[in-house]
User: Fold these one by one.
Assistant:
Number 1:
Amino acid sequence: GEDVEQSLFLSVREGDSSVINCTYTDSSSTYLYWYKQEPGAGLQLLTYIFSNMDMKQDQRLTVLLNKKDKHLSLRIADTQTGDSAIYFCAESPYSGGGADGLTFGKGTHLIIQP
Amino acid sequence: KAGVTQTPRYLIKTRGQQVTLSCSPISGHRSVSWYQQTPGQGLQFLFEYFSETQRNKGNFPGRFSGRQFSNSRSEMNVSTLELGDSALYLCASSGDRGGTEAFFGQGTRLTVV
């Protein structure tokens, strides 16, 4: 069945880059997402990438997709204390995105050290 | 533009009771999806509604049900509550499956005692 794996914790120094990794198993996934969840809040969509793309950049965020290895990463440049949150990787089986039937990883807790 | 609104934010129920949670999507959005979030299982898909029809369902028992109204507002119902149903229930709205982003509400925290 479908599965999405992520490391549970990542600790980085303020100002450094953070790289959060994710692997997925469903080769038919067409959209891959990164969501952010702050304490007591819902999920905030950060960015997404189509499965036919290798890279997408959006301000401080860079998403890299290696479709052969089914590996997705999220790089946050110049990490700030406000980036402290749980980051979820998710895959969609549908060609258009949306929130229908997403499979999520367990989430990576990003911890920022001063 | 108002975001996705979930009510109530917090709820405490007793085992065996039933509960109804509400989700008002972003204006114009017709797709509403529901997710359960627990520390052990993470985020799991419950079901998705579009134009009052359930189009997709996750792997949950029949005690979990939902519906969508003509104004796209959605409710989910859990009957015969179990302790393991304690979770954060999140809903998300989008225009449709195709080509649109989804926006999540802040969730309803359900505690079953």
Number 2:
Amino acid sequence: DVKVTQSSRYLVKRTGEKVFLECVQDMDHENMFWYRQDPGLGLRLIYFSYDVKMKEKGDIPEGYSVSREKKERFSLILESASTNQTSMYLCASSVTSGRERYEQYFGPGTRLTVT
Amino acid sequence: EDQVTQSPEALRLQEGESSSLNCSYTVSGLRGLFWYRQDPGKGPEFLFTLYSAGEEKEKERLKATLTKKESFLHITAPKPEDSATYLCAVQAGSNYKLTFGKGTLLTVNP
């Protein structure tokens, strides 16, 4: 079974702090994704990575950056947290080839509150 | 721009009362349609992938079908443990991005 883990289930940070959210997958997947989920807005893609050190902007990258130094690990960084970044953050991974290549598997999520 | 619309937004059923959830989509070059289940406060759990019109997949009380414009998730004789938000997503084009609908919140009362 694919396992995607996220470093924290709940996180509370202050405005202006630098925040790191980490995601690790154990299935050797090439692709990794960061989403945020808000009521009424659904899941929105922040960034994704299709290889180590490679990244592409999603639909809402402003205020975020990412890092992928190892294949299994994908980090989301909030350079200076703001209250409008309070949200549920979800990490996902998928393979590049084969019939299952678009199936994304999600972690449990991190509920971030910025005060 | 790819669009995914799910209906209804919320559905309340009695245990054993079968029904269907709808996911309509507008994409150019569908490569896959995906159904997920999400419990409160948790990440989405993968259920099915459908690749082409006419395809059907089943898992326990759930059956997903696909046409050229929409997909249905049929729930037969649901139980309270089927209560969750069901998400639909599509993949089109050459990258790996999924476009998600906003989900249907299903509540099954005992």
